[in-house]
Amino acid sequence: GAGVSQSPSNKVTEKGKDVELRCDPISGHTALYWYRQSLGQGLEFLIYFQGNSAPDKSGLPSDRFSAERTGGSVSTLTIQRTQQEDSAVYLCASSLADGGGTQYFGPGTRLLVL
Amino acid sequence: GENVEQHPSTLSVQEGDSAVIKCTYSDSASNYFPWYKQELGKGPQLIIDIRSNVGEKKDQRIAVTLNKTAKHFSLHITETQPEDSAVYFCAATIKAAGNKLTFGGGTRVLVKP
After folding, report:
1. A45 in contact with B at a CB cutoff of 8 Å?
2. Angstrom distance (rounded) from CA A113 to CA A39
3. pLDDT, chain B, mean
4. Given an 8 Å threshold on Cβ–Cβ distance, is B99 in contact with A4?
5. 3-state class of A114 per DSSP?
6. B6-31: pLDDT as tens digits
7. Cβ neighbour number for residue B16 with a 10 Å cutoff
8. Which of A17, A28, A70, B50 has the CA that lies 20 to 30 A from B13?
9. Does B9 touch chain A if contact means CB atoms closer than 8 Å?
10. Angstroms from A17 CA to nearest CA on chain B
């Protein structure tokens, strides 16, 4: 079946604008994660959704970042008033609820804030 | 929180030789250790993983070993091929903490033909 998909694949925006990044997880996966990867760096956890539970937002770097997951499937990561330091690749992953940790990643959205 | 250190940051090997990447973790409650391969412009792809109840796992040319006492785990690639060139990430997670992965900083592997 289809893997995790993300859109857009690339996004260029001006400092101060808001952006929305979309993630479509693998069908049937109830857990969804967002990570941020700065150039040449590792991956930084941002937020985690599991079923109908309250999301774990412990990795969000500031209140400009928020995410929602509608209907337990598609998720949107929103960055308000973007800053140049927000430039990075934003990766989404999904897993089965009791998958024991196996996460499958999408291709990412490359965000550039000018 | 969990902290994962990965070494080396870059690794250059001759085709056919072996490559070894090592990671250490800080939280003794960590129980799942995946390895991901990331090619340029793509998302990370899981290549092998190991859980805390085993010490070694092998899949063709790739193997992972885990030392729970020392809190380190390693990726071994034998008979390296040019297509093995990529960035490799180790990660550790605590299932009780929602399976959030904490990643190492990555190792850029270059296999020279």
Report:
1. yes
2. 13
3. 92
4. no
5. coil
6. 999 999 999 999 999 999 998 888 88
7. 11
8. B50
9. no
10. 25
Contact call for residues A18 and A82 (beta carbons, < 8 A): yes
Q: Which two tokens stand for residue A12?
A: 């260029």
Tokens of A32: 């969804």
Tens digits of residue pLDDT in A34-64: 999 998 788 998 999 988 888 889 999 999 9
Pairwise CB contact (< 8 Å): A102 & B49: yes
Query: Two tokens at A98?
Result: 């009791």
Residues 57-86 of B with CB under 8 A from A: none
Closest approach of B24 to chain A, Cα-based (Å):
15
Q: Residue A19: which residues within 8 A CB-CB, separation 6 or more?
A: A11, A13, A78, A79, A82, A111
Cα dist from A89 to A19, A45, A51, A92, whole Å: 13, 12, 25, 10
